[in-house]
Each structure stands twice: as structure tokens, then as C-alpha cells.
Amino acid sequence: MIKVLFICHGNICRSTMAEFYMKHIINKAGLTDSIYIESAATSREEIGNDTHYGTKQKLDEMDIPYTRRKARQVTMDDYRNFDYLIIMDENNARNLSLIIDDDIDHKVYKAMTFAGESRDVKDPWYTGNFDETYDDISRSCDALLELIKEQL
Q1: Are 40 and 73 in contact (CB under 8 A)?
Q2: Rounded Cα–Cα distance for residues 52 and 17 (Å)
Q3: Per the structure, how many domains does the chain have?
Q4: Strands 35-41 and 2-8, bridge-based pairing
């Protein structure tokens, strides 16, 4: 089984959108027994909070199911247990390195690199634009799924 962890600052907007989007496309592809998905935060600011209402509204609009959840912080055990740790931006990279030290196993990837771009996933916490975030997330997750399919 391939295990993917999506990571953003608070684990309520971008990483949860990626978690539920990826679960949705994996389910449609019939790969739920082959790929495991979770999400986490680099900070402790939102620990215990559910997914942001703007993310929920966008997922509802796109008919993507989600469940109630509680934000959590990424751990060193996550680094050991997941195959892919997908960060949303450069700040996540810096903050994640404080938790896991060096990425000696080369498991950390910036989300948009799967879509052939080096930029950050747009952050709706600052922009208020969940449509742009969804576009980034869907493009990167679609490309990531194609990559994972080649490994299965």
C-alpha cells in the first residue's frame, strides 16, 4: 500500500481539500485498497479543529464527499510511515524540517511539482479564493495519482 500525507500550515484548508479530493479520485479509480491518504499540519494553531467551512463549501460544490475530522500536527512517525509527504508551500517546507530534520529518504514533495510547476498552492486563508486552491489541488492530485498508478 502506498501512503500519502498532505501537509499545510493548519490542516484545515489546503491539506484537507487535497485529502478529500485524493480520496475521491482514488475511489473512482477503484484503488482504495492500494492507496492510503491522510493530512496534517506543520503548526499547532488549529489542532482539533474541523475542516474550514470554505473548503467544505467547495467540496460540496464539486460533489466530493468529506467527513468530520480534527486537525493534527505532523510527527516524525508520519515521516517514517508515509511514502509521500506533500507540502503546499515553502513555509511548510521550513516548518516541516523543524519536525523531521533532513528529508534523508526523499519523501517530501511540493504539491505543484506533480503538475510541472514549482510555485506554491494558493492559500485561501489569505486569498479567500477556494476556487483557485481547488484548481491547484485537483491538478496536482490528478498528476500524483497518475504517478502512483505507475508504481502499483
Answers
A1: yes
A2: 9
A3: 1
A4: parallel
**Which listed residue (8, 13, 89, 120) is catalytic?**
8
Query: Can 8 be counted among the known catalytic residues?
Result: yes
Cβ atoms 92, 99 nearer than 8 A: no
- Can you tell me the distance from the alpha carbon of 50 to that of 69, in angstroms, rounded to the nearest whole number? 5
What pTM was computed for the model? 0.97
79-120 pLDDT, tens digit each: 999 999 999 999 999 999 999 999 999 999 999 999 999 999
The whole-angstrom separation of Cα 32 and Cα 15 is 19
State the CATH number of the domain containing residue 16.
Answer: 3.40.50.2300
* 86 grid coordinates: 506533500
**Whether 14 is catalytic:** yes
Question: How many CA atoms within 13 Å lie on the side-chain side of 7?
Answer: 31
Range of the domain at 64: 2-151
Per-residue pLDDT at 49: 98
- How many residues in total does the chain contain? 152
The single residue of 13, 123, 136, 141 carrying the catalytic annotation is 123
**Of 14, 78, 89, 141, which is the active-site residue?**
14
| Cross-sheet strand order for the sheet of 35-41 | 35-41, 2-8, 84-87, 108-110
